[in-house]
Amino acid sequence: MTSKENTFENGAALATTLAATVAAALSAAVAARGEASIAVSGGSTPKAFFDALSREALDWEKVTVTLVDERFVPADNPRSNHLLVATHLLKNAAAKARFLPLFSAADSAEEAAERATEAAAALAQPFDVVVLGMGNDGHTASFFPGGNHLAEALDLSLPRRVMTMEAEGAGETRLTFSFSGLQDARLLVLHIEGAEKKAVLDKALAGKDEAEMPVRAVLNRAASPVEIYWAP
Ligand SMILES: O=C(O)[C@H](O)[C@@H](O)[C@H](O)[C@H](O)COP(=O)(O)O
Q1: Cα-to-centroid distance, 84 and ligand 1 (Å)
Q2: Each residue of 56-77: pLDDT tens digit?
Q3: Strand locations in the chain, DSSP E?
Q4: What is the Å distance from ligand 1's center to 32 Cα?
Q5: Nearest CA owner, ligand 1 atom 11
Q6: Taking the model in full, what pTM does it have?
């Protein structure tokens, strides 16, 4: 599918516009189907976007927020994406939203992934909104180069699910939605900032090898158009 680049003068302008666009998509979903779902990424990039989105007026109590991926740590761990979203997004108007965590205090990451898959199956599919980030190694979600389950994660013949991923660049064991669970979102966004990530994006757009740069799966094979949001 195609990708469209939306360029902004700075991160604040990007955050304001992306928050308004996402809020409109969530409101349209609630109007059409009585509920909405959004999966967001962790990391440092989305904080300003989360803050702006938290202030958008919509029927947040009908919106389920979940994570594209999660580190296999409890919500009180500083590395937790649940903690990041609880701190920066689930506040102000958005405090009324439902939250679906990927982490649970299971005996193993595999068991936590199975639990999260079951919980996510209760959500209407596809996601209304998915907001992806990208690392300088070309990963997105927890689709890391060299990931132990990367091929399965990117295999569209496999069902949407939450699965585990381990990779040199990932730190802790990760829990991540599969590509099949993310790629058909009604609004599919790739949010990156800075010159270095723009260079990484341009390299990704210029090639096909998904093992080298897993974000290429999103750029080249997503069923939905990819809205790229970038600011210097
Ligand atoms: O759990 C995570 O870390 C994210 O889901 C990950 O995919 C993130 O989007 C990129 O690593 C970019 O992170 P930064 O925004 O911090 O550069």
Answers
A1: 11
A2: 999 999 999 999 999 999 999 9
A3: 3-7, 36-40, 63-67, 69-71, 98-100, 129-132, 162-165, 174-177, 187-193, 226-231
A4: 31
A5: 135
A6: 0.98
